[in-house]
TrEMBL record, chain A:
This is Cytochrome c1. It comes from Bosea lathyri. Belongs to the cytochrome c family. Binds 1 heme c group covalently per subunit. It comes from the Bacteria. Keywords: Electron transport, Heme, Iron, Membrane, Metal-binding, Respiratory chain, Signal, Transmembrane, Transmembrane helix, Transport. It is found in: Membrane. Residues 52-251 form the Cytochrome c domain. Heme c binds at residues 65, 68-69, 211. Residues 1-28 form the signal peptide. GO terms for cellular component: membrane.
TrEMBL record, chain B:
GO terms for cellular component: respiratory chain complex III. Heme b b562 binds at residues 96, 197. This is Cytochrome b. Residues 228-397 form the Cytochrome b/b6 C-terminal region profile domain. It is a multi-pass membrane protein. The chain crosses the membrane at residues 42-69, 90-111, 126-148, 160-183, 195-215, 247-264, 306-325, 337-356, 368-389. It holds the Pfam family Cytochrom_B_C. A ubiquinone binds at residue 216. Its cofactor is heme; heme b. GO terms for biological process: respiratory electron transport chain. The keyword Metal-binding applies. Residues 13-224 form the Cytochrome b/b6 N-terminal region profile domain. Heme b b566 binds at residues 110, 211.
Length: 294, 427
């Protein structure tokens, strides 16, 4: 590259940089606060879910979130499959039986209630959207099945390029954890007065959220360790982490298999590629007439 | 370059078939004995990579179509069904979705390679135009494919892009109604997009065959841009030389592809597309896929809707006229000191336009978009003008000379410059 073109390229880069500086300010204008980055067991190329964390996360979801939020894409049996919370089939069947599912019509043409089965989807808390809105002051509690992949924030240039190499892609769980811990009551000074059904959350874009603070410290009891105490604190912060981890699994139930397969594929390609490289060198060492190639 | 056939049928069956349908001869002549310039660099492996990507997209796509439901109330959930319940469905879908992006990475490298080495010039004009047609078909296919998961970005992307046609005078509204199959983006739109998304790849395949046919008639260009003069000295047979090099290039490309599929599968997508389509809620920023961003920036740079649509169309169509826009007789920019600077400036322009296309339509991005849109089209004007007065560096007398001369550090040493021409495609 000649010096002139190099200078041009630099100018281009500089322009890009100066443009990017306005990205965070644009986000601030929309009332976005970047969620703090947490450390997740499932991040990175060798990431795996923490089974205990997924089980705790499910407990919170079941006892708290599921009162308003559906999770329609998940089936109860998913809780027992490899790479997830890995409850035992017995636990999953027992859990399924605690739900009542409307089925039918039967031979008489009537709908009937039956106990849930592991193959059933997670029962929704409300029969339809209208019922959900009516019970929640007009706001619709979103379905949580893929929420961990459906929420993100702008990383901006050049951070989004670094993300390719650091494999940072946990914007979703970071946001969910931040949202659960981001309630401020009373709201900070300078906030316009809240209308009924509005709550202040630091991390919600625009800060106004229709969901009341969902959980408080000590609300969900975690399984006890040998010493009779829960191995992790029963705090909103911990609940937030556990729920976020569970929702990442719910959105991407085959993530562990994906990363594991990925390693095998990459190792194979590396070996195959180097063999090909040396074969190519050998082939190209001589021209068809036997003369040296270069 | 295709001389007479060197295929000699060895067995009785081969002779019998050759007299009736010389298909083995065709394959032998195009993939074994076909002479390729001996000085091709790794940018020439992207043609093979693109064929691989097309086949990979068709294969994964056909299997995905077995599990997908093209209905507005079921499409989103059927994609999630593929992700959750179909064996290796997550792999198929991530291969297909990231495959589209990687297809565009490869095609942009391929286009910028052609641009740098003047591969569009005589006698390769038809070859180049066929390439532009493939590019257009790819864009249509990718756009319709992105609509199929029926997420928020699918829906609103489809709404914005199809609405562009309404800018056309007289027939605009009719075209849009026809595209939608009604008066808004809805189930009929999804249905016809699915149908067309299945059809267009096979049309691409057809044009690719023409593209390769045209290539095999005129022969490959090469980093010096000097045509083959002596087949024995300047070329090597496709097999094993180009075959092994292409496969190696392909495996390196698949390595990058796999990295995204297995470790960053949603990097090139939009989080909003994991929200089911909702006609009542408009996303804050409607952004097309990254490979459309430079054109999207040009579209939004023009304050007039019809003007924007025409500018965007012109930005693509102008490529087809490159063989006649570029007035220089010298193909390779390695020997064109001024045009080479233009090339790099154009590459930077495209990247910056891509960045601007991802930004909201507000200041200062709008002004920047306008400046860089002018620069985009300015490149073609400048290329026309520069060719009239530019004094090229001396060309090597032949391909063999340029390769063998490089040992002595002579004229061939310039090839080193050529290998630095790595077009970055993350627009």
């Amino acid at each position: 590259m000649s010096t002139i073109s190099f200078r041009l390229a630099l100018t281009g880069l500089a322009t890009g940089l100066s443009l990017s500086l306005s990205v965070p300010s644009a986000q601030a204008a929309e009332g976005r606060v970047i969620p703090p980055q947490m450390s997740w067991s499932f991040s990175g190329p060798f990431g795996k879910f923490d089974r205990a964390q997924l089980q705790r996360g499910f407990k919170v979801v079941k006892e708290v979130c599921a009162n308003c939020h559906s999770m329609s894409l998940l089936r109860i049996r998913n809780l027992a499959q490899p790479g997830g919370p890995e409850f035992t089939p017995g636990q999953v069947n027992a859990l399924a039986a605690t739900y009542t599912v409307k089925d039918g019509p039967n031979d008489q043409g009537e709908m009937f209630d039956r106990p849930g089965r592991a193959a059933d989807p997670f029962p929704a808390p409300f029969p339809n959207e209208q019922a959900a809105r009516a019970a929640n002051g007009g706001a619709l509690p979103v379905d949580l099945s893929v929420i961990a992949k459906a929420r993100t924030y702008e990383r901006g240039f050049p951070q989004f390029i670094f993300d390719i190499f650091t494999q940072y892609q946990e914007q979703g769980p970071d946001y969910i954890h931040a949202l659960m811990t981001g309630y401020k009551d009373p709201p900070p000074e300078g906030t316009p007065p809240l209308l009924p059904g509005q709550y202040f959350n630091t991390y919600m874009p625009g800060h106004l959220i229709a969901m009341p603070k969902p959980i408080s410290d000590g609300q969900v009891e975690y399984p006890k360790g040998a010493d009779g105490k829960s191995p992790v604190p029963e705090t909103v912060d911990q609940y937030g982490k556990d729920v976020a981890a569970f929702l990442v699994w719910a959105a991407e139930p085959h993530m562990e298999a994906r990363k594991r397969t990925g390693l095998q594929v990459m190792v194979f390609l590396l070996i195959f590629g180097s063999l090909l490289y040396y074969t190519k060198k050998k082939v190209w060492a001589r021209m068809p007439d036997g003369s040296a190639a270069h | 370059m295709s001389g007479h056939s060197s295929y000699v049928p060895k067995t009785g069956i081969e002779r019998w078939l050759d007299a009736r349908l010389p298909i083995v001869r065709l394959m032998h002549d195009s993939a074994v004995s076909y002479p390729v310039p001996r000085n091709l660099n790794y940018f020439w492996t992207f043609g093979g990579i693109l064929v691989f990507m097309l086949v990979a997209q068709i294969v994964t796509g056909i299997i995905l179509a077995m599990h997908y439901t093209p209905h507005s109330t079921m499409a989103f959930n059927s994609v999630e069904h593929i992700m959750r319940d179909v064996n290796f469905g997550w792999l198929l879908r991530y291969l297909h979705a990231n495959g589209a992006s990687m297809f565009f990475v490869a095609v942009y490298v391929h286009i910028f390679r052609g641009l740098y080495y003047g591969s569009y010039k005589a006698p390769r004009e038809v070859l180049w135009i066929l390439g532009v047609i493939i590019f257009l078909l790819m864009m249509a296919t990718a756009f319709m494919g992105y609509v199929l998961p029926w997420g928020q970005m699918s829906f609103w992307g489809a709404t914005v892009i199809t609405n562009l046609f309404s800018a056309l005078p007289v027939i605009g509204e009719t075209i849009v109604t026809f595209l939608w199959g009604g008066y808004s983006v809805d189930n009929p739109t999804l249905n016809r997009f699915f149908s067309l998304h299945y059809l267009l790849p096979f049309m691409i395949f057809g044009v690719v065959i023409l593209h390769i046919w045209a290539l095999h008639v005129v022969g490959q260009n090469n980093p010096t841009g000097v045509e083959v003069k002596n087949v024995a000295k300047d070329t090597v047979p496709f097999t094993p030389y180009a075959t092994i090099k292409d496969i190696f290039g392909m495996v390196c490309f698949i390595f990058v592809f796999s990295y995204f599929v297995f470790y960053q599968p949603n990097f090139m997508g939009h989080a909003d597309n994991y929200i089911p389509a909702n006609p009542a809620v408009t996303p804050t920023h409607i952004v097309p896929e990254w490979y459309f961003l430079p054109f999207y920036a040009i579209l939004r740079a023009i304050p007039d809707k019809l003007g924007g649509v025409l500018a965007m169309g012109a930005a693509i169509v102008v490529l087809a006229f490159l063989p006649w826009i570029d007035t220089s007789k010298v193909k390779s920019m390695t020997y064109r000191p001024v045009a080479r600077v233009l090339f790099w400036a154009f590459l930077v322009t495209c990247i910056v336009l891509g960045y601007l296309g991802a930004m909201p339509a507000e200041e200062p991005f709008v002004t920047y978009s306008r400046i860089f849109t002018v620069l985009y089209f300015g490149f073609f004007v400048a290329l026309f003008v520069v060719g009239l007065f530019e004094k090229p560096k001396p060309l090597p007398s032949s391909i063999a000379d340029s390769v063998l001369g490089s040992l002595k550090g002579g004229s061939g040493a310039r090839l080193a410059t050529a290998t630095a021409a790595e077009p970055n495609a993350k627009g």
